[in-house]
Design brief:
The structure is a single chain. The protein has about 625 residues and is mostly helical. It has helices spanning about 1-5, 10-25, 35-40, 50-60, 70-80, 85-95, 120-135, 155, 160-170, 190-205, 215-220, 220-240, 260-265, 265-280, 300-305, 330-345, 355-360, 360-375, 395-405, 425-430, 450-470, 480-485, 490-510, 520-530, 550-560, 575-590, 600-605, 610-625; strands at about 30, 70, 100-105, 115-120. The strands form 2 sheets. It has a two-stranded antiparallel sheet with strand order 1-2. The chain has a two-stranded antiparallel sheet with strand order 3-4. The longest helix has 23 residues, at about 490-510.
């Protein structure tokens, strides 16, 4: 063994020793066979799992002790056997200052020629591990799950669209009717259909997919795939970090704070408040971010110790947290010991020891969000009489919010009324409907400590003025103050007209600028249904016949033959459940054929005229555009 070791440079040998020691945290001089892949990763030598298994089996064949342990000398010998010129160059590159970052030229249809994009190996590995766990039992994913996080399997696995559809439903259950997913026969055509369904469904839950299409996913464009997956995963992680869905968050209210103050906080801010709440109970120093402030892992040790079940509730099993790892001098080894404690809570997701030590904000944010979802360790205060039902987001509010976010407005809209109170998002939406905004008249953040209210009010006044003078909206009795104060009725009146204009704009473009009204859409729907030999008709967008979704389904089958499977539809003696199933199927098929529908199945069942109009308008646009 020593001869092999001496053939490696002293610097390389020292790097290998450091990598080995990071995994050998008990300083026994050995690592277990199942830890070998992690040792290689620490040495910046990324090998697929199957290759590591083959190596392990080979070297343990002559293991007379049968202890399945690997010494440092054996590890060096394994490394030496693997070392080819190609591996050597890879090793040198990956230990550079841009460790784990891959760069490549912009080659997708949405990239500027010659633009350099990059993606992080750490985020790829984290997302793959999360997806593997989330879809482990899904029979439709057996052909791709589990993926090897140390390869580029992920970028190949998204091509048939099934993984993206399933992850959307994992983050937001029932977004996609799984009867619509092409899961059996996998061809380029069925994969493209699935990808169109996934991208339109991602928009519907608030992902920004502007300038991303199915071809980008088929090409496996790394930064686009990872960017979309991060949005989908993040939406799922943040779903319950909202007071109306988790009343115990009221325990985080600070002194002299009102409920309104907390409602203005983003999920990221609530998570930071949650961590600091538990750190206070642990008599530990508070943090200001999920980057530099958590690098030493001690924050996480204290957090885990606070949230781990204590066994003091009936049927609860105590999970003790070993805090001795806080005394480990090496930061990476300390992070590994911390993550072993997180594993006891089944929460060792998203971060590796390196991600903690490097302060990877996205992955640490995801790690903390998962901890919160699994073990919030909060109790609703008994001294408040807040009616939580009044805080629940309406279906219409959620639809509007998701629509805005899908268009890429900044900042991200978490709560419809408070997040629109400075006028900035509304002004961005005007540009989406091609109403010009004079940004010289707009006050941008950061707003001054004194006078910020006035600055925001000026923005809202300008937004209402644009609506009246340029967009020609009906805004009788609505002023900037109403928007600034978050008046629901007046804000919705403006937002609905923005969304309606955005929806019918494509029809005006296709009709050479002709202004489209509701009756024109209704007439087109009935004409298309008649030409298609269908018996269904609609008199208006409040027609009770729409509650069955049959007019929508018949229209889809007319403009996209073979898109509808008749056996999936119930046409007679419809119970409420049948209507909902028809609606779910109709919405998902509409998205699958290329319409960006934001409406929800309940909107059809309850015949919400605003959302019903958007569904028919989108289908009309799809038909005219394809025709």
């Amino acid at each position: 063994m020593e001869n092999n070791a001496t053939q490696i440079s002293r610097d390389d040998l020292e790097e290998l020793r450091q990598a080995f020691n990071k995994i050998d945290i008990d300083h026994s001089g050995f690592v277990s066979d199942y830890e070998l892949q992690e040792v290689f990763r620490e040495a910046s030598l990324f090998l697929p799992a199957y290759k590591v298994r083959m190596i392990t089996e080979k070297f343990l064949t002559g293991d007379t002790n049968k202890d399945e342990k690997i010494s440092f000398e054996e590890f060096v010998a394994i490394y030496q056997e693997l070392r080819s010129q190609e591996v050597r160059e890879t090793f040198r590159k990956t230990i550079s200052r841009r460790d784990g970052i891959h760069s490549f030229g912009g080659t997708s249809g949405v990239s500027s020629e010659g633009t350099q994009h990059s993606y992080s190996d750490e985020e790829k590995v984290a997302f793959v591990n999360w997806i593997n766990k989330a879809l482990a039992e899904d029979p439709d994913c057996k052909h791709i799950i589990p993926m090897d996080p140390n390869t580029d399997n992920l970028f190949q696995s998204v091509k048939d669209g099934i993984l993206l559809c399933k992850m959307i439903n994992h983050s937001q259950p029932d977004t996609i009717d799984e009867r619509v997913i092409n899961s059996k026969k996998r061809t380029v055509f069925t994969g493209t259909e699935n990808l169109i369904l996934a991208l339109n469904s991602a928009s519907a839950i608030g992902c920004t997919v502007v300038n991303i299409d199915a071809q980008d996913m088929i090409a496996g464009t790394p930064h686009l795939v990872l960017g979309l997956l991060w949005q989908i995963i993040k939406i799922g992680l943040f779903a319950d970090i909202e007071i109306s869905r988790n009343e115990a968050l009221l325990a985080l209210l600070g002194e002299n704070e009102t409920l309104e103050d907390m409602l203005k906080m983003s999920p990221e801010e609530l998570l930071l408040r949650w961590v600091n709440f538990h750190l206070t109970n642990a008599c530990a120093e508070k943090i200001k971010n999920f980057g530099d402030d958590i690098k030493d892992s001690r924050v996480y040790f204290n957090l885990l110790n606070q949230i781990a079940p204590k066994g003091d509730k009936e049927g609860e099993i105590r999970i003790p947290i070993d805090m001795s790892g806080m005394n480990e001098a090496d930061e990476v080894a300390r992070a590994e010991l911390m993550l072993r404690q997180a594993a006891l809570l089944d929460c060792r997701q998203f971060v590796s020891p390196r991600d903690v030590v490097s302060g990877n904000n996205n992955l640490n944010l995801a790690f903390v969000a998962n901890l919160f979802n699994m073990y919030p360790a909060l109790s609703k205060p008994t001294d408040n009489d807040i009616d939580i039902t009044q805080l629940e987001e309406s279906r219409e509010d959620k639809t509007f919010r998701n629509w805005m976010n899908s268009l890429g407005v900044s900042p991200y809209v978490n709560r419809l009324y408070s997040d629109l109170a400075d006028g900035l998002v509304i002004l961005q939406l005007y540009e989406k409907i091609q109403v010009p905004v004079d940004w010289k008249k707009v006050n941008r953040p950061p707003f001054p400590p004194f006078g910020s209210h006035m600055k925001k009010m000026e923005n809202c006044n300008y937004a209402v003025e644009l609506g009246r003078t340029e967009a020609k909206f009906s805004l009788v009795g609505i002023g900037g103050q109403n928007i600034n104060e978050g008046n629901q009725m007046h804000t919705l009146a403006l937002v609905w007209q923005l969304m309606r204009r955005y929806t019918v704009k494509v029809l005006s473009d296709l009709g050479d600028g002709e202004k489209i009204n509701d009756q024109m859409i209704i007439d087109w729907v009935n004409s298309a249904l008649e030409k298609g030999g269908k018996d269904t008709t609609i008199s208006n967008f409040k027609d009770k016949a729409i509650s069955t979704s049959l007019p929508v389904l018949d229209l889809i089958s007319t403009i996209a033959p073979n898109a509808i499977k008749p056996e999936m539809i119930k046409r007679e003696d419809l119970a409420d459940e049948d209507k909902l199933n028809n609606a779910k199927y109709a919405i998902s098929v509409a998205r699958k054929i290329g319409t960006k529908v934001y409406a929800l199945p309940d909107d059809l069942v309850e015949v919400n005229p605003k959302m019903v109009m958007t569904v028919f308008a989108c289908l009309m646009g799809r038909s005219l555009n394809k025709g």
